Amino acid sequence: MARALIVQLARLGDLMQTIPAITAIKTAVPDLGLDLLCPPSLSSIGRMVPGVDEVLEWDGTVWRRWADEASADLRPAHLQEAAKQIETLSLRRYDCAYVLNQHPRALLAGALLARETRGPRLDGPIGEHLSPWASYVRAVARTGRGSRVHLADALCGLCGVPPPGWSPVLGKPFCPLPSNLDQIGRRGEPWIGLIVGAGAVERSVPTEIWTIWIIRFLEAAPNGRVVLLGEERERGRWIHNLLPPSLLGRVWDVTGRTSLLELAEVLSRCHLAIGSDTGPLHLAAAVGTRVFGWYFARARVHETGPYGMGHLVWQAVDETGEGEMRRADIRPAQWPIEESIAQFMGGQEMRTCGTPGWSLWMSRYDRWGAYYAEVGGCFDPPSERERLWRELSPSLTGGSAVGAT
Amino acid sequence: MSHLSENLQRLGRKASALAEAVRSAAGGVLSLTPSREGSVTAKYGDQWVHSAYDPRKEARIWGETQLKEWRSGEIGVVLGVGLLYHVETLAAMKTDDRRVAVVVADVSVLKDALAARPMGDWVEAVEWIWGDVVEMARCLSGLSAPLRFLTYVPGARLHADVHRELETALRRMVAEQGGGRLHIAVVGPIYGGSLPVARYVVSALESLGHGVTWIDHSSHRQSYDRFNSYQEARHRLAMQSRFAELLSFDTVTRLAENRPDLVLAIAQAPLTAGVLEHVRKKKFPTAMWFVENYRHLTYWRQLASSYDYWFVIQQGECVEAFRRAGARQVHYLPVAADADVHAPCVLTDAERAEYGADVSFVGAGYRNRRALLPRWLSREWTFKLWGDEWEGAAELAPVLQRGGARIDTETCRKVFNASTINLNIHSYDGPSLDPHADFVNPRTFELAGCGAFQLTDERTLLSDLFTEQEVVRFRREDEVPKLIRRWLHDHEARRAVAEAARRRVLAQHTYRHRMKELLAAIGVHQPDRIGAVLRGDRHARALASRPDAPPELSALLDRFPPTQRVELKDLAEDIRRRGVGRPLAREELLVLLLDSYRSETRDLV
Questions:
Q1: 3-state secondary structure B501-566
Q2: Does A198 lie in the same domain as A141?
Q3: DSSP secondary structure letter of residue A326
Q4: In this structure, which long-range contacts are made by residues A139-143, counting pairs with CB atoms below 8 Å and at least 24 apart in sequence?
Q5: What confidence category does residue A347 fall into, taking pLDDT thresholds of 50, 70 and 90?
Q6: Which of B532, B582, B594 sits opposite A67 (nearest CB)?
Q7: Of A69, B135, B465, B567, which has fewest CB within 10 angstroms of its CB?
């Protein structure tokens, strides 16, 4: 049986957006043994990805230490240790490595661990010629122009497989919650997983805004509960402190206290995840929970909106009304608080955005992958995706994963 | 058979001459006594040389500590003999790729040790270093491997002077052998007397073939001075401190962008303790050449533990004070002259008229100079005073040149060359000659370098640097007029003295000499880093010929000229240049992978 390795050394959101590519590869070559190489911090969640047999941990801190030592005093022993580390990961070289990062270390790791690599470079790990899909992704990144091809689907293109055409989810169970958190999702409803913020201030929703959102939501949903999630414990505590005492019993602050698997479990028990931090939002979508995203600063809905069906993204737009198609560092002046609560409480009845400075988008997918359609507008899939797939992957109709080479 | 006879037989098989010397030695330096645990232990006077309770356990703990630093391929040079428990332990604990050498400063102590207890076969596996210090240094440098000094303090303190002399001799030898090229970041001050020293240091290092990144903060002088316009002193101090902090970060940013092998700061360099701690965590070796009087400028107390190496211009109490304040390595390194700058020059008649005088003094108006110089004015000789900070010195106003403006280096050189007698008075903030007259100022070397005749106030450290036939000195202020009269009209005698002083400078006291000594001192203590580069261990040929170098690595190294220093980044660059479009070997991929992480270690800022 052929064995292949997925190399994904970036962050949580990138790993979650790799799931469709893994699914697509397994669909194209069902007999292929597929392992995943990822950072140790993501290995637990990597093991839940359907289609992955084994997870190999790429410990960057060890490599960084050797690099420090070798740059201070180059010795043959450094190369010997490094070679041993590669052997510890896998004694046998893989038939193929699908490299999903453009960083040299990912390309080199793939070249060391596999006989053949597929990914961003056409002529080896130090080559300069990018594959068509890598050129496309880089051009999008460099020019700041928007793209209607979702990044997760572009990763499929990098791997030489078409998008799966459906939305794969992580396999359950994730992990039992500690007794003090085990009541989450069990009493009262709806439960909202509120992701308090990304690390960078410019990418975070102000804590005062979240506080207002929670108050309004709990007023609108008398049995509702909110769980504050994320790594930013200070922000969680700050929000908690701003809430009126009467609501405290309905707001659970678990920021900074959950492992990645526990976070997945908590998100899976929620009826909705809301936030602006795309990593946890992708995780929520991957565990099958509906997502409301507030995308601003550099986040753009069409490239990195939560993958799946029925997720909603409020996209901040600039005065040209093109925030979703242009990389504009937009800092919203007002926030879609009432609108997002109304959308959630209103069930299936979709309304237009209504908040100045924002547009509202809903996720869908078809055979060309995921796409977002503007709520209140036409839900027809955008044609440019098909055109792009035909241009960048002309030979893809039969699929050409490693088994076909 | 006694322990001594048996042990001498073993020693004789390894070092017969030493065994013979031990046999003839008196012994009796150590007093032996049983330890609580039963084995024999020793005292020197009132001081225990080994544990009174369990010398073997103590030796084991010491050995474990040494092994943490001791690298493969290095020779561990043990300072301190005692009863050799620690050497025995070290010999047992070490791996085969490490060798042990023991410095025997006094064969009588070794005799006591060999008579005290039975030794094992390890005696024959150890290199025994003995004789006078030069002989020992030659022997150690002849071992052809990096040396790692392992000091057993209770035993070593008996012969601390010998060990210090040995290190000095070894440094000199390393300095002479040094051929490797280092990349050194020199961090200079914003202004002040140490600024020209920083320039000379840069020039010397470059002329020795090292790569230098000169982090010159003098360009910030104007901004720094703007803070003097505040009315309140505390505002000025606060802002100047903040400004220095900003420049400290500027230095770190430059280090991050171009990683050096060594950061060499010159006194007054704006580097804060916090930034130095950060730099240390990133494993940059740091050194400070404190070319200031430690009694006057005392900020070194706050920074003592922040630098890996201190080089100071004073000895004795100064070195002790730095150590007490937390400095790990303190070395004496006097200032010097720059042979290109401080040299004789031919003057035109007009220049001779402008700069010349029977007696001259160049320098700032310190309190002692203001008090002493008027006493040395006379109708018997002409006198010119050059330099700044002489405001209010009414008696000296008639001889003050250029209205007390600061003069540049080139003008100084012309004055030195044009003056018959140059006075050199070390600065002191009192009305007399410096009562703590130890260090020798840069002016002494500069005047000597220029081939100029000088009368200098006596310093305790001067005789180590110049003889009385090279630099004429005075001990009391009333000697000066007599000396002027003695030398003013004796042209030949003056010329002989001045030329001898210049020869001495060129032979021993240039900044090139000092930088060689400084790097050798660091190299001796960092055999695996600075020392390795200085020895040429990082040259392509040396790396390729290491016994553990796989053929694939040797093939990569063969692409470089044999004596070119090769680092990880050089290998990676070469692979990238040649590797496009062809399959890369495993070793090449590994080099590139390590380099990709190296290039991301610039997170200093």
A1: HHHHHHHHCEHHHHHHHHHHHHHHHCCCCHHHHHHCCCEHHHHHCCCCCCHHHHHHHCCCCCCCEC
A2: no
A3: B
A4: A140/A303
A5: low
A6: B594
A7: B135
Q: Give me the torsion for CA of B497, B503, B504, B506, rounded to 10°.
A: 150
- Better-predicted residue by pLDDT, B76 or A147: B76
Is residue A272 a part of any domain in this protein? yes
Please identify, among B509, B530, B556, the residue that sits at the C-terminal boundary of a domain: B509
A91 in B contact zone (CB under 8 Å): no
Per-residue pLDDT, A198: 65
> What is the per-residue DSSP string for B212-260?
EEEE-GGGGHHHHHHGGG-SSHHHHHHHHHHHHHHHHHHHHHHHHHS--
**Contact list, B546 vs chain A (CB under 8 Å):** 75-76
Which residue's entry shows tokens 């203001």? B370
Residue of A nearest to B543 (CA): A75
Query: Whose structure tokens read 């200093």?
Result: B604
State percent of chain B over pLDDT 90. 71
Strand partners, A330: A297
Residues A147 and A198 placed together within one structural domain of the fold? no
Q: Which of A101, A104, A155 is nearest to A133 (CA)?
A: A155
Q: What is the dihedral of CA B257, B262, B263, B264, to 10 degrees?
A: -140
**HEC per residue, B57-113:** HHHHHHHHHHHHHCCCCCEEEEECCCCCHHHHHHHHHCCCCCEEEEECCCHHHHHHH
Chosen domain end from B129, B149, B168 = B129
Give this complex's ipTM.
0.90
String of DSSP letters for A39-78:
-GGGHHHHTTSTT---EEE--HHHHHHHHHHHHHS--HHH
In this predicted model, what pLDDT tens digit does every residue of A348-386 receive, in sequence order? 556 676 788 899 999 999 999 999 999 988 778 888 888
In a domain, A134, yes or no: yes
Looking at the DSSP bridge assignments, the partners of residue B213 are B185
Question: Residues with Cβ < 8 Å from B212, sequence gap 6 or more?
Answer: B183, B184, B185, B186, B202, B205, B206
User: What H or E segment, with its residue span, contains residue B150?
Assistant: strand B147-151
> Do A203 and A124 share a domain, yes or no?
no
B465-472 long-range Cβ contacts below 8 angstroms, 24+ apart? B465/B334, B465/B440, B465/B504, B465/B508, B465/B509, B466/B501, B466/B504, B467/B500, B467/B504, B469/B496, B469/B497, B469/B500, B470/B497, B470/B500, B470/B501, B470/B504, B471/B444, B471/B497, B471/B501, B472/B497
Nearest C-alpha in B relative to A77: B548
The model's pLDDT over B71-109, given as tens digits with 9 standing for 90+, comes to 887 889 999 999 999 999 999 999 888 899 999 999 999
Domain ranges, residue A237: 191-374
Q: Are B87 and B63 within 8 A, CB to CB?
A: no
Q: Which of B545, B598, B603 to mutate to test the interface with A (most CBs of A within 10 A)?
A: B598
Asked if A126's CB is within 8 angstroms of B584's CB, the reply is yes
